[in-house]
Amino acid sequence: DWLKTNIDKQKPQVSGSIELVPLRHQRGYEKFVDLEKVSMGDGVDVYHPQLKVNMSARIVEYTFNVLTNSYDKLVVGNVKTNFLENTENNV
Fold first, then answer.
1. Rounded to the nearest 5°, which phi and psi values hold at 73?
2. In terms of pTM, does the model score above 0.70?
3. Per-residue pLDDT of the chain in tens (91 residues, 90 and over written 9)
4. Using CB atoms within 10 A of its CB, is residue 57 exposed (0-12), middle (13-18) or buried (19+)?
5. What would the DSSP string read from start to end of 6-73?
């Protein structure tokens, strides 16, 4: 019973800085340039090469370089959902 009602408490908490692989200059990815744009709170999928796992997290901080028009750093972590997100997920 406890396991079913507290499933989120069993998930590990993650946070950290990530490096981006810029797609805009890769052949075949020209149509996906808009996917490189993120905002605070956006959900992202992250691959951790040392653990060899995919994780889901949210953008909690970023550094954007206006000279290169790209992100220098993204910081991801677990963020509590708010009322609106809970409502959207249940509709």
1. -155, 140
2. no
3. 666 676 666 566 667 777 776 666 677 776 766 656 788 888 888 777 887 888 788 888 888 889 988 888 888 887 555 544 444 544 4
4. buried
5. TGGGGSPP-EEEE-----TTSTT-GGGGGGG---TT-EEEEEETTTTEEEEEEEEEEEEETTTTEEEE
